[in-house]
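From the methods appendix. Each design record in this collection lists the tokenized structure first, followed by the designed amino acid sequence. Records were kept in a plain field format so they could be parsed without special tools. The example shown here is representative of the layout used throughout.

RECORD:
FOLD TOKENS (39 positions):
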């Protein structure tokens, strides 16, 4: 395993976590918007 490959894997894992994190934030934000509209 080459060091560059390890760094590439770390970067892709970070990108994956970032995308999941943003997705969760967007879902929560949309839920809040829907909740605010109902009240």
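DESIGN:
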């Amino acid at each position: 395993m080459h060091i560059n490959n390890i760094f590439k894997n770390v970067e892709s894992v970070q990108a994956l976590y970032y995308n999941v994190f943003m997705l969760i934030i967007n879902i929560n934000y949309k839920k809040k918007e829907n909740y605010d509209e109902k009240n």
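APPENDIX NOTE: The mean pLDDT is 88.
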